[in-house]
Amino acid sequence: MHRRSPRILQAAALALIATATIAGSSLAAGKPGYPDRVSWGGISWQVKTSNAAVGPGPNVFSSSNVSVAAGDKLHLQIQKDSSGRWTTAEIIGPTSYGYGTYTFTVGSPVNALDRNVVLGLFTWSDRAPYAHREIDFEAARWGNAADTTNAQFVVQPYDVTGHLVRFDATAAVRTKQQFTWSAGRASFLSTNADTGAEIYRYTYTGADVPKPGDERVHLNLWLFGGAAPSNGAPVDVVIESFQFAP
Question: Could you tell me if 6 and 137 are in contact, meaning their C-beta atoms sit under 8 angstroms apart?
Fold first, then answer.
């Protein structure tokens, strides 16, 4: 699913969610097979679980790796289960937002992730048209510890010229990763969440920019190729907020 790979006011965002949910009950019903949910940012998110390795990765996904701590901070973790398997984390939003600005505030330094770890903040549809309507921010070195870049913006499919750009996410502890999606255009921006300083900016325009439909917001933390963290240590990434502005 990868290697590819990739607050307007809260009340306004929640109102938009409610409207979209009513309009698209099939989306609101949730993805079959994922009954576990977590409440974060005023939204009920599905939690991905699997008994066997599945994509991306492939990895085993566990609800025990998703939690919300004080201050409404989402924790996504990678850790071993009781059988010694490495397990990963993913949550799925309730509805399609469509065109607008998606902003994720990350409370952990993304440049410190192990070379085998991938953090994904993205839109995704289970249906194939428009490359699964996928637009990504991904923090990853894809197994290459020597890579001087550690993050990327992507408009899927990633292997089309101009669809993927790599950059250095810097050592900032807190960052904002943002993309604005509109007809024929995807504009990306990475900033230091404490100072507002720009880290990287990129815009892709073209008729092949996905059109909105049944995509949802996903956040995940997983292992490239299903390989264990090279340092053998569990991983905990904090996401402070997700905001959408139409």
Answer: yes
Q: Is the peptide bond before 56 cis (omega within 30 degrees of 0)?
A: yes
Tokens read off for 50: 């699997």
pTM over 0.70: yes
Distances (CA, A) of 29 to 21, 33, 188, 215: 9, 11, 30, 14
> CA distances (Å), 107 to each of 130, 135, 155, 192, 241, in order?
31, 21, 24, 11, 9
Q: Which of 2-6, 93-97, 106-110, 201-205 has the lowest mean pLDDT?
A: 2-6
Single out the residue of 158, 166, 96 nearest to residue 125, CA to CA. 96
Distance of CA 45 to the CA centre of its chain: 13
Pairing of strands 235-245, 175-182: unpaired
What is the distance between the alpha carbons of residues 187 and 165, in angstroms, rounded to a whole number? 12
- CA-CA distance, 181 to 68, in Å (whole number)? 28
- DSSP for 200-246 reads EEEEEESTTSPPPSS-EEEEEEEEGGGPPPTT---EEEEEEEEEEE-
Contact 195, 124 (CB under 8 A): no
49-76 pLDDT per residue, tens:
999 999 999 999 999 999 999 999 999 9
Element (H, E) at 11: helix 10-23
C-alpha to C-alpha distances, 119 to 4, 57, 72, 139, 220, nearest whole angstrom: 13, 12, 19, 5, 6
Domain 10-245 has CATH 1.20.1250.20: no
